[in-house]
Amino acid sequence: MPLGSVQYLYINLKDQGIKQKIANEYSIKHITIFENYIEAVRNVRNACAHGNILYDLHLPKAIRKGPAGSMTPLINTRLSGAIKVIAYLLKSISTNRYAEMLKEISNLESNNQYKTVLKKLNINFSKLL
After folding, report:
1. Helix pair angle (79-93, 31-49), 10° resolution
2. Of 5, 51, 73, 115, which sits with the fewest C-beta atoms within 10 Å of its C-beta?
């Protein structure tokens, strides 16, 4: 099932108890935060799938403060905020995949070609995660 359909299905569940149980599986206390996180992930996925430029990603809705960490106005609509959400959700699903993601980010930061771009964009992934 496509991520957009999963999001739509979740949002349209009438039983708030079921919605809360699903959010609790990710240690998220508020349904609205879980919905917001899923929307952020879907927006990043869509940007990747449609060939959009990620480094300049601007999410249509700000990411809410929650268990993914503090979301300052500087990052709550940007790729760096979305990466915090993705990392948080991924860690909830699989610690192995989360470790792989951290390793890939570390490799990216050590690559001189990308280091310059990340510096220009003021992105320091190791501080985000």
Report:
1. 110
2. 51
